[in-house]
Amino acid sequence: MNAALNTEYTIYFAGGLFDHKELIGNAILASYINKLSKEKYRCILPQDLEQSTNRAVDIRNQDLSCLLACDLAIFNFDGTELDSGTVVEFLYAKTLDIPAIIIRSDFRGSGDQSREGDPWNLMASFYPRTRKLEFNSMEWYQREVNALSNDQNIFDTADRLYRKIANSVIAELDIVVQDPPLLSTDQGQVFSLYEWASVFPGSGLKEIVPSINDIIISKKNKGLID
To answer: What is the CA radius of gyration of the chain?
Structure first.
């Protein structure tokens, strides 16, 4: 990997976004990652993307187009059952060899793997250029609550907790961006794959994807593609 030290990376931040806890939790963690990395990592939240229409296909296309163009991706794998949309986006990212971080803060077990395996379905495991950050959110929360004096409030607790999570995510991002890419621009391999990724979902995705050449050149300059 031959990226400059001051390289900035865009991150597609995927996860559930269907209730107030998910929405504000996504936004807070993304803002802490941006801030504590000094904008080295800039998270893009699907929930913040402007929707030109309310049509389901347009929302899907906009999210996939954004994911295809981003340098890295973060996937929230919380819940006894993973959010199905997040899993689809994860596999789309892995098809494009996009470096990714999986975050799981849910202390409940699930999935079909052994006790030593990941707490989710095995078909979402074992992919290259993928790091995992797993922690017990209840344990981390209670630790931060107990670390504060009585005159401090929940906002102090939230600040300490999100700083800890964000710094842990940043540490994993620093590692995964160094993983060697599987894709190369030799013989048009990358262009063909990205072109196909814009075509196979159908339903108008190709028409809204930005210039594939520009996306590939940008990622190559950052060392994310050979």
So the answer is: 18
